Amino acid sequence: RDTKLQILEFLKNSQLFEAYGSTEAGIVTILRPHEQLTKLGSIGREVIGIDRIKLLDENGNEVPVGEVGELYSRGPMMFSGYWNEPEKTKKAFRGDYFSAGDMAYKDEDGFFYLVDRKANMIITGGENVYPSEVENVVGSHPAVKDVAVIGVPHEKWGEQVTAVVVLHQGKSATAQEIIEHCRGKIAGYKIPKEVIFIKDEEMPRSGAGKILHRILRETYGKEMRR
C-alpha cells in the first residue's frame, strides 16, 4: 500500500491501472484509476471477458463474502494445461476453473483482495496463519529491514510460526522485542514463537527479488520444535 501511494504521488498526472493475472489464465481482475484510493489494497473486480471468479475452500465449496478462499477463474485466455505434467495440471484445476495458488477474499462491493500464496500458509493448532499478515506487523518494527514468516514443524501444534528477520544496519532488536511488538496487533496464535536473525545477503530471493519462503522452510524446518 505504501508503495502504491508513493507511485500515485510520483506520477501525479498519470492514471494507474492495476491488473492481476497469470501466464496460465491471463488477466483476471483490474483496479481502475478512480478506485485506487477508495479500494486501497485491492486487486480490483473481474475484468471484462472473464467468465467468473470463484473463491473456494479446501473442499471445493465457495466461501462467503469476507472469508478467505483459493482464487479460481475461468476465461477465454485460459491455457489447456502444463506441458507433459498431467499431475500438476490436475492439481491446478477444479473442473474448468484454474488456480495459480493465491488465497484471497471478496468484499461486499465485489472487489478482491490477495492474502497470500497457498503454499506459504501456516497451519498451527488447526488455525490458518497467512505469513503476509504477520510480516506486515513484524516489518513495522523500526529496526526491521526485511522479514519472512514461515511455518516450521512443531511436535504439538503441527507447525510453529517463525519469523526470519533482517535488521537495518546500525539498528538492534532482540527476539523478545520483536515478539512483544506483535502483541495486541494480531491474534496470539499468529505471533511468532521464534525469531531468527540473518544477514541481508542470506535472505533467499528469486530473480524478480521476491523472498523464497520455500528455501527458508527447507533451511530452518529440518528440526522438530517442542
What report would you give on this structure?
This protein folds into 2 domains: 2-117, Luciferase, domain 3 (Roll), CATH 2.30.38.10; 121-220, GMP Synthetase, Chain A, domain 3 (2-Layer Sandwich), CATH 3.30.300. With 226 residues, it is an alpha+beta fold. The protein has helices spanning 2-10, 86-92, 131-138, 175-182, 213-220, and strands at 18-22, 26-31, 45-46, 52-56, 69-74, 93-94, 97-106, 112-117, 122-124, 127-129, 144-154, 158-167, 194-197. It is globular, with a radius of gyration of 19 Å.
What brief labels describe this structure?
alpha+beta, Luciferase, domain 3, three-stranded antiparallel beta sheet, GMP Synthetase, Chain A, domain 3, globular, 2 domains, 226 residues, 5 helices
What would CATH call the homologous superfamily of the largest domain? Luciferase, Domain 3
Q: From the 3D structure, determine the CATH topology of the largest domain.
A: Luciferase, domain 3
Kindly state the mean pLDDT as a whole number?
A: 94
Helix content: 10-25%
How many distinct beta strands? 13
Instruction: Please identify the top-level CATH class of the largest domain.
Output: Mainly Beta
Order of H and E elements: HEEEEEHEEEEEHEEHEH
